[in-house]
Specification:
about 35% helix; two-stranded parallel ribbon; about 240 residues; Rossmann fold
Length: about 240
Amino acid sequence: MTGISRRVVMTGAAGLIGTTVTPYLDQRWDLHLTDLKSGRATGLDITDGDACRAAFADADAVIHLAADPNPDASWEALLAPNVVGAYQVAQAARDCGVRRLVLASSLQAMLGYPEHMQVRAEDPPRPANLYGATKGWIEALGAWVANTSPTSVVALRIGYFAVRPPAGDGITPRDLAAWLSPRDCSELLRAAVEAEVAGFVVANGVSANRYRKAEPGDSSGRLGYRPSDDAWSEL
């Protein structure tokens, strides 16, 4: 199945990543946008398993972006969207037999490694905040789905997503090294949905930065992700 014939459901479509990549992707697939917020996206409460199953019926793939994205969020704020919601989405995708489940993990799950270290996709999560811990949880859910059903799962450790490379007070070289541009994020999601892979894959999501916080690994190898933007060239 290629191109527009794919029915792809996106959760969290009203968020920063969803609204930015939709113009790139909705001409490629039959893209169905869902979110709690009103607007173009269809309303969906990801903590409601029945609602998720109804939304995912007949989908070829699900891209799960919905979450509280605040790295400083409390347990109370994270519990519903990042823990319960992640489970309900994973369970519903499994129940519906979707071919591919794409999960938005984060390089925040790897902040416990030394700052100078370039992390690899095969490195296990080592979070330094509760938000990162919930991304370790979503990766574990992905492995469970892939190991217990025909649904293949790609967990994307998304870096510092922003329209332009981060700049200003408080921005570190590590932030630049983790930058993921809108164009490259769209390419990353395309590759994660369309790649001919089976089982469970963890891939790092950063642009083609001169100095990368995360090595390309399975992103470029198994998924065929080809980033083109460099934070240092954009400054």
